[in-house]
Amino acid sequence: MSSIIEQGFGVGDVICLLWFKRSLPRYCTQFIEIYIILCADHGPCVSGAHNAIVTTRAGKGLVSCLVSGYLQSVHDLGVLLMMLLATSRMLVTGTVRVLLRAGKLEKTLVQMMVEGSLEGEEKAKTIVKEIMLYEVDKIIWNLLTKWIHESLHKGKEALQNGKEAETWNPKSKAKPIAQSAVELVKLAKTIMEQFFQNPIGITEDIVQELVNGLENLFQDYIMFVSACGTKQSYVPVIPSLTRCNRNSKFSMFLKKGCQCGGGGSLKADHISNATKEGHNPRPSSSRGTQCLYIRLNTLFYLLTHINSLEKTLSQNLVVLPSTRHPYGNFHRSYNNGSYFEKVLSSLPTTCQYMAEVAAYHLIFLDSDSIFYESLYVGDTANARIRHALRTLKQNITLMTTLLTDKAQLLALKEVMKASFEAFLRAVPKLDYHIVSKDFESLNRIFCLCREGLIAESVMDIEAAIVEATRTTTEFSNAR
């Protein structure tokens, strides 16, 4: 007794000494202690333990003791484990550890019975077949799958609630992101953290089931964010072609008539209103355009945090081969080093699309009265771009204030492309030098904006489109 006290034996260690006349591994003694707690008032289990003690005292071997007691108690213990799992709605770490110890003890005892049976190995295997095994691996797999499904279901509910409540108002100026996106990313990270806390070997089929569920949530939300129309809905309708070019005598006659003031009052009023607005420049960005900026920020926010989840999976995950339901596309994604392959490949295109819609909304809707509808209307010399440039500078300043650093470059480039399209129109060759200077002034704004965010090569490509259109027009007029 003093030796037992000195060595700090627990209840499980003492029972092993009494029952089996030897010390068993720590996981066996811990499981026996849990077994006692679960089965203390369970009659068949107690009788099985009693029979094991009796046979031991009668001089029978260890295997006989195990067969006598284990056959009577294993079924009842399995029933109690099922009851424990039925009351567990979540994948609790303690529950998993109990199951792992039960499975390890079961395998050890079965192996001991096979190796130590006096009646032969075949007889021992026959006895083992009569035992209802716990199938711990299957239980844990089903429990983990159930937990994944419940977690993803909660994610779908949170996503739907976020869609219904989203107003595209930033939570703060320091974080101009949709609140629904913040909640979705937070939920995904929580699910991932809980997933890695499970003390089990993670197989590729379990990983892919979780990744597929999260990826579907992200794709659903991205479709919701990008559902805001198309840039074509803001582009002005191209007027019908006529048989008279801009340099014909008839066109010159009409131009002189408008300058006399007879029928050009509406054009003059239009130019006068644009000029007044140009003298008092203020941002013309509507509430709708500002909401589009928040959507663009949100897409870049998702791109950043999905990449973060990707790194978390790559750095913390040791994938074991699957023995159940392999996913055909898992090996392809994993070998390429990307788990969220679909969503990560589609997000840049969606960001580009959103930036285009925001730019065309700004230029052809918000700034229509002072930009596209007023530029070179009536008389080219009196309807130049300098007044519109003042407002454009204000719009760009507001845009860079609302957009995050990662979204500014793409948005500014699309605003440049949209504003350049205002020059894709027919003008008399006599006014070409005026249009050319205006285009240089517009080009200069984007060169100086935000210390050259747009690369010079990109600006040259976009400017070449306008230049090519001008050259084609001159060639056509010369014919």
TrEMBL record:
PROSITE patterns, A to Z: MHD1
GO terms of molecular function: acyltransferase activity, acyl groups converted into alkyl on transfer
Residue span, MHD1 domain: 96-238
Source superkingdom: Eukaryota
Pfam families: TPR_PATROL1 (PF25761)
Transmembrane annotation, as ranges: none
Protein name: Protein unc-13 homolog isoform X1
Species this chain originates from: Arachis duranensis
Record lineage: Eukaryota, Viridiplantae, Streptophyta, Embryophyta, Tracheophyta
